[in-house]
Amino acid sequence: MTAQTHTLPDGDLDPLTGATDPVAAAHEYVAGQAFRADERRRVGLELEFHLVDLADPARRPEWPQVQSLVAGLPALPGGSSVTVEPGGQVELSTPPRDDLPAAVEALAADARGLRSGLSGTGFGVAALGADPARPVRRSNPASRYVAMEDHFEAVGCPGAGRSMMASTAALQVNLDAGPAGEWQSRLELLRSLVPVLVAASSSSPYLAGRASGWHSMRQETWAGIDAGRSDPVPVGEPTAAWAAYALAAPVMLVRDGDRHTALTTRVSFAEWLAAPERVGRPAAVADLDYHLSTLFPPVRPRGYLEIRCLDSLPDRWWPALAGLVVTLVDDPTAADAARDVAAPAAGLWEAAARHGIDHPEVRRAVTGCVELAARHAHAAVRPGLEELAELIGSGRTPSSELRARIDAVGPTRVLEEEAHA
């Protein structure tokens, strides 16, 4: 599902710069773009990989090398776009597919195509929530990412900001928003499921050669950046809640053509609209569109719904986690049951990231939700969900399995093993 962009016809007045009350105009604009009523229940998947030099897995590839490798990839059979993240992570993003099996098939084919395209180059890719071994370092020199680093430094979260940009990777599930009458209930269900998804999907017990003790160090990095940018959207009428969240969030950077300038003081978008001198010029609708792309709540409305709280996972697990999300949200029977199963752990965001299923309420919610999804899931992903349910029933998760392997052979060796897989 492709992000929306909005352009104004020639001669039309910008709805923000021409407004008597630009804050109210911006609120109306964001609320109006938040969701598109759609009953098709389509699914899009995005998976990020760490690019690994197989001859020297402790070395992070340099940017010209990353560019050359990506440029040399063939067209992928499932139609995924290929993009590159600040630390050289490679991301595959499928077009929206009619259902879960089609989306899983497309991403699986394109992941194989990515690995095949890299074969013979001396590089591989590892799908893990955090780079377990290599030091944190941004390799992508794009001015957007330079400005992001400068902003994080200025507002007091440089370590978490750099780690988030350069050393983490995610599995993202994109779903149609559904009929307008279901928007609020779908969002409330997804909000309650986030601790379950964090604990079940984690594959990041190490980051940059160290273990902090968090079950998901990827989520630890998100908890360490500005809460106004990464906390969940508040409960309420969904379009208004998203608009209020977006306008209260701090402006990270200002784009003028190809140049990006970091804001080094905390200025919300609403404050920019009300007092343009705080940024140096009035805000336009293009600035608002760009600002929305710098907000990272666990569930983000983009016309459709982006579920952004899952770690990237190896092939053994990511189809099951995609199936967990889609089944519990889009299957009516499973969704009704999941509301009750997930509710006791719904507010345990940090506990799920710190302790995973070692936290008793999180464990009960994860166990119940995975078993529920396994019963109702499409046959294409049911075996993986049954395997995940068995793993969790034994008191383990992908994260704990990975931690045990890293403890045995070291993070660099595990990064290499995953890249060879």
Automatic annotation (TrEMBL):
Pathway: Amino-acid biosynthesis; ergothioneine biosynthesis. GO terms for molecular function: ATP binding; glutamate-cysteine ligase activity. It is an enzyme of class 6 (ligase). GO terms for biological process: ergothioneine biosynthetic process; glutathione biosynthetic process. Its EC number is 6.3.2.2. InterPro entries: EgtA_Actinobacteria, GCL_bact_plant, GCS2, Gln_synth/guanido_kin_cat_dom. Keywords: ATP-binding, Ligase, Nucleotide-binding. It catalyses: L-cysteine + L-glutamate + ATP = gamma-L-glutamyl-L-cysteine + ADP + phosphate + H(+). NCBIfam families: EgtA_Cys_ligase. Catalyzes the synthesis of gamma-glutamylcysteine (gamma-GC). This compound is used as substrate for the biosynthesis of the low-molecular thiol compound ergothioneine. Belongs to the glutamate--cysteine ligase type 2 family. EgtA subfamily. This is Glutamate--cysteine ligase EgtA. The lineage of its organism: Bacteria, Bacillati, Actinomycetota, Actinomycetes, Propionibacteriales. The gene is egtA.
